[in-house]
Amino acid sequence: MKTLTILSICLIITSTAWTQERYFTRTGEISFYSDAPMEKIEALNQQASCIFDKSSGDIAVSLQMRGFKFEKALMEEHFNENYAESHKFPKSTFKGTVDNIQQLDFNKKGKQEVRVKGDLTIHGITKQVTTNGTIEATANGFTINADFSIKLEDYKIEIPSAVIGKIAEDVKISLDMDLSPYTN
């Protein structure tokens, strides 16, 4: 009986510690910006999901393409129908790892530099990307930020011939995630 009690306590402690290694959000922010001669294009999605395992450095992000909101309704419609083809490719995902996870001190105050490598899937095309970002411990978890650029042609997002030269071929993406402990 004593052995069973000790074993039960060990299992509870282990499972609690394991869940505290993972952090999650469903309200992450991903924005993109395209500085083009015709018009500056900006959009924000505040419904990105992200899970981060601080022991392994594994990170995964997922979002619905229709979650991007634009200043102008017509831009949003064109984005979903003509560029992202959200009806065919409703999700974008990233699955990767923080390369320098072993060098991070999660008890340290302030932002720490991270290097993330993984697979980014947009428009049904998966490409390996590497980018730098920051992670900062907060009272309830972590904040993760990153900025990087993609080329539309890499993801087979076609620019209609009528607007070639008026829309930028590179898009700047910003990611801001406020993560809390993951609970089952």
Average pLDDT across residues? 89
Main sheet strand line-up: 1-2-3-5-6-7-8-9
User: Architecture in CATH?
Assistant: Beta Barrel
CATH class: Mainly Beta
Assign an overall shape: elongated
Beginning-to-end CA distance, first to last residue: 29 Å
In percent terms, what proportion of residues is strand?
over 45%
Give the helix level as a range of percent: 10-25%
**Spans of at least 5 consecutive residues with low confidence:** 3-19
CATH fold call: Lipocalin
Structure notes:
With 184 residues, the protein is of the alpha+beta class. The protein has a single domain (22-181), classed as Lipocalin (Beta Barrel). 16% of the residues lie in helices and 49% in strands. It is built from two helices and nine strands; from the N terminus they run H-E-E-E-E-H-E-E-E-E-E. An eight-stranded antiparallel β-barrel has the order 1-2-3-5-6-7-8-9. Strand 6 and strand 7 (125-137) form a beta hairpin. The chain is elongated and about 55 Å long.
Topology of this protein?
Layout: H1 2-19, E1 22-34, E2 41-53, E3 58-64, E4 69-70, H2 73-83, E5 91-98, E6 111-122, E7 125-137, E8 142-151, E9 170-181
Give a summary of the structure in a few sentences.
By secondary structure, this protein is α+β, with helices and mostly antiparallel strands.
Key descriptive features of the protein:
elongated, eight-stranded antiparallel barrel, alpha+beta, Lipocalin, 184 residues, 9 strands
